[in-house]
Amino acid sequence: MQFFGDLNPVIQALIATLFTYFVTALGASLVFFFKGVKRQILDAMLGFAAGVMIAASFWSLIVPSIELCKDLGYSIWLMPALGFVSGGLFIVAASILMDKYSFTTISKDSNKLSTIKRSILLVVAVTVHNIPEGFAVGIAFGGSKLGLEGLSLLSAISLAIGIGLQNFPEGAAVSLPLYREGFSKKKSFMYGQLSGVVEPIAGVIGAISVFSIRAFLPFMFTFAAGAMIGIVAAELIPESAHKSKNLATVGVILGFTIMMILDVALS
Predict the structure, then answer these.
(1) Nearest one of 197, 199, 198, 80 to 138, comparing CA atoms
(2) Is residue 3 assigned to a domain?
(3) pLDDT tens-digit readout, 208-229
(4) Which of 12, 68, 82, 199 has minimal Cβ neighbours within 10 Å of its Cβ?
(5) 207 phi and psi angles, rounded to 5 deg
(6) 3 state DSSP class of 38
(7) What is the C-alpha to C-alpha distance for residues 226 and 54, in angstroms, rounded to an integer?
(8) DSSP class of 105
(9) Domain containing 229: what range?
């Protein structure tokens, strides 16, 4: 611990966020343990992914955004609301643009186009969600070195561990639905772990720019939350409940509950 504590905060943030990325990849690797899964089970997995994303949006992003607004002296609703709406509109706009331009030359099969779009939106939403988490870890380590109120090395390590454990179901929440959509296990894993690559990058930037980025974190947190809720509402829940409504509902409940427990227990 002494050796780690003596490191530059940027190096600390890099090591911590590499850990959170590794746990994301570990969660994504669950796709390799499924063979010949029935459509109903995969629908339940898609529902589970939706539940994880809903819980992560609230407990990991919206609540911290509101608390940080209090600490910074901002309105506790204005910036969180603007961020949430912006994130949701980002997903709506991305969906419209993909419908209009991106896939017109790929295939005339509307079902295939829908699958491609849904898969891309899923990866984008979780990746966007991971950016502020990486910033948060970086800011925690940078702030602990600078003596910011309420931040210590132990609290920064605890935050990194908590986010890492949360990332396990999030990695699975990307790779398993992609497998459900027809991607190979290898590609599903690749995209699942890729959604966590942004965390080390954001962590290093957060540690370097601890003061300036901290001021914008409330907006960034809820932007990510709005993006996640947007993809859940537009794609994940409708698709999972199309043929297996009850199983999808159970999946949503389980995903939300597990993610809520991880967030609350490790906060």
Answers:
(1) 199
(2) no
(3) 887 677 788 889 889 988 988 9
(4) 82
(5) -65, -35
(6) coil
(7) 10
(8) T
(9) 9-265
